[in-house]
Amino acid sequence: MDWAAFFTLHRGLPREGPGDRDSLDWALGLASPPPDGAICDAGCGPGADIAGLLAHVPEGRVEAVDLHAGFVAQAAARFAGEPRVTVRQGDMGELTGPYDLIWSAGALYFLGVSEGLGRWRAALAPGGAVAFSQACWFTDTPSERARAYWAAEYPQMTGVAGVTAQVRAAGFQVLGQRPVSDAAWEAYFSPMEQRVATLRPGADAALAAVLDEADEEIATWRACRAEYGYLVTVARPA
């Protein structure tokens, strides 16, 4: 991955993956962090979910963590002057807490579901929970196009039953699961499409490759949206 080209495309985009306030509100309703609770946004990207997380802990705080300095800078700028938000660069696999909730939108796969939950268990306060979204098959017979795309992007991808098994293998119980809506995917892709169109004229080879990857991501999902998506899972240590 040419990271300079990647950030040329992604810098300033509102989200780094499909998601929306409706999914977040549903998940936090199940997790029920206390009003004065502490939430970690693990793999926060540009900070798209921080405002929604804050709304569920009106007397609490949000600590947002991401490995990439560019996303940390964007999220920090978004919430400059908000004393209840801390944004820092760091490894989400090394969280210490204690947190009443760890929220991770489309990032837990970097650690693996079972391994990530196992690492995060010690960072949870008593009664704490984890809510995360994860790429997931919604059919047992995906098309060749969908299989080919995800074989390169995330070969370990599994179905709903597989995600559930990974959660249980980490010693957690599933409180609820639901897919991210098609509308959330379109809201994620639309700004990216506009950016691709703006950058395409005059793009060098490295940037053109990144733009091609974005086009393929969008086109594959639109052609195969019934076959896969993001699954939101809320889980608590058993």
UniProtKB/TrEMBL annotation:
Example GO molecular function: methyltransferase activity
Domain Methyltransferase, first and last residues per copy: 39-128
Keywords: Methyltransferase, Transferase
SUPFAM superfamilies for the chain: S-adenosyl-L-methionine-dependent methyltransferases
Source organism, top-level taxon: Bacteria
Xref: Gene3D superfamilies: Vaccinia Virus protein VP39
Keyword field contains Transport: no
GO biological process, any: methylation
Keyword Methyltransferase: yes
CDD domains the UniProt entry points to: AdoMet_MTases
Xref: Pfam families: Methyltransf_25
Protein name: Trans-aconitate methyltransferase
